[in-house]
Amino acid sequence: MNLVFLNFITRRSLFFFFCLNVMNGAFAQKLKIVLGPNQIGSNEVFTVTLNAENYDIQEYSAFPNIPGFSKAGTSSSSSMRNINGQVSNETSIIQNYMPTKEGVFKLPPFEMKVGKMATRSPGCIIKVGPPVDQKSTNPFGANPFAYDPFEDFFGKGQSQDFKDVKPDAFFSVQTDKKEIWAGEGINLILSFFVSDENQAELDFYNLGSQLSELVKKLKPSNCWEENFGIEEIVPRKVKIGKKGYTEYRIYQATLFPLVAKSFSIPQLKLDMVSYKIAGSNFFGANRKEEIKPFYSKPISIKVKDLPPHPLKGNVAVGQFVMEEKIGKKLVGLNQGVGFELAIKGEGNISYIPEPQKIKSELLDVYSPNTNQTVQRAGGRITGQKVFSYLIIPKEIGSIELNKSFNWVYFNVKTMTYDTLRPSGVLKVSESKKMNSKASATAEDSFYGMIEKADNTPIGETRKAHKWLFWINISIGFMAVVTLVLSFMRR
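User: That's the sequence. What structure does it adopt?
Assistant: Structure tokens below.
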């Protein structure tokens, strides 16, 4: 009898730990490094991507330096999945590297840390060949926000032959639009520009605390923010008119006004350290620091209300397309099939609502799992949101899916509401496998599940679970005592 109890407990324990391991592994925290292609042209970018699953990337170690390359900015992307109520997320930080010359270069093995987690990369050999044909771009053409954020420090070569020179530099808040629709994104950048002709010596002053205060002043409370996450600052050469400047980008984000309320970005102040040369002696120049303020120009943003529509206030705003994917186009009656609708484009991806399900006598449609991906690069917020449905046909014949789903959004390009619909057709035939089960209410049907539901009152069920827990504990204790006694007898 004791052996029976022991065997019973052992099997239950194994089953419990098996289930626990499966549940923990389903959404485990993972960290990995992904390297880009190892053969590129001298005008192409090599990438190192830090990818984290179910782990918040707030602080991470520096990306490695690569001989023959210079760091050329970072971008980030994130995705979220909702599977049967279990939410998982994935975040990626992409470091870009621009080759400085042609040749063969070695990226040695390296390690990166995110919080207490660490991951290693074996490195690789990178071959940089001649330039490849690419479409040329003007750094400050139609879209001055087409840069990625850059990383490093701010510095300017010292000059010891001048006194109290006026800085040839300015602080700027830039936006790509002055008028937008409610829900439409506006790109915003804070930068400090230093002229190539500047002779004054400047440095950032307590930038971290200054930046947090600046962001509070420039971001309205009724806006959704997609921050590009500039962690470090690296100089970038640009031209404004015919004059050359070095840009130091300190903040970049896309703001999405949630309501039709215009707002203003006030004049902002950035304090910089300015060095005065007091004189020279045998040991070199004596410098005196002073705090010099730089001011941006205020900007007014007009936010227009969307035109009248039954779904106004509940639609996404931007430019989107719909893509669909069905598990199989020919299915049996009352047999479930997977169906995906992906909304892709530019806009507030996090705000994309679920497509409308039109009530139909032809289909049972169950609530979807979701998978969201957001990409922040080049001054744009793009991505996709995927809705994965289980659909069960209830009639034999052809079912046009455009009569069961649609998705309405406001198109900022045409300034009208557009409706996207799937184009697929599901062909339904009588399944031989289902003949023995065929009925108006299928086993996989939602209503069939209701009929089979447990009608036991919730209170009684909880009591049963509570007693079952203590019974299991008692049985386990008895099994352990029995095992100990058997060893003692021996």
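The radius of gyration is 31 Å.
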